[in-house]
Amino acid sequence: MEAIRHHHPPLRVRRNYPYVGGSGGVCGALRRRHAPADYIGISLEVNQAFMLRGGPHWRAVRSTLIQTLEQVLREAG
């Protein structure tokens, strides 16, 4: 979240909003099925309005997500 905020400050980044999070989705199911040492899941949700609007703002959001995920994974080793 901090990497996204740093790379593209105008984006509003929130954790699990408006959901409580933790129990649903594919990542949660895989976490229950596999030991922590065997599975690391990343779940990312992007507001559909960005994609539907398209244009330069959507390209900036996509670029931000790709670059910051690459950065965080590099830093994690």
Quick recap:
By secondary structure, the chain is an all-alpha fold. Helices cover 56% and strands 0% of the residues.
List the helices and strands and how they pair.
Layout: H1 2-7, H2 25-33, H3 48-53, H4 55-76
The total domain count is 1
Number of alpha- plus pi-helical segments: 4
Over all CA atoms, what is the radius of gyration?
Answer: 14 Å
State the helical fraction. 55-70%
What percentage of the residues does DSSP assign to strands (E)? under 5%
Task: Return the average pLDDT rounded to an integer.
Answer: 86
Architecture overview:
It is a single chain. The protein has helices spanning 2-7, 25-33, 48-53, 55-76. 0% of the residues are buried. It is mainly α and 77 residues long. It has one domain. Helices cover 56% and strands 0% of the residues.
Q: What are the main properties of this structure?
A:
56% helix, 77 residues, globular, mainly alpha, 0% strand
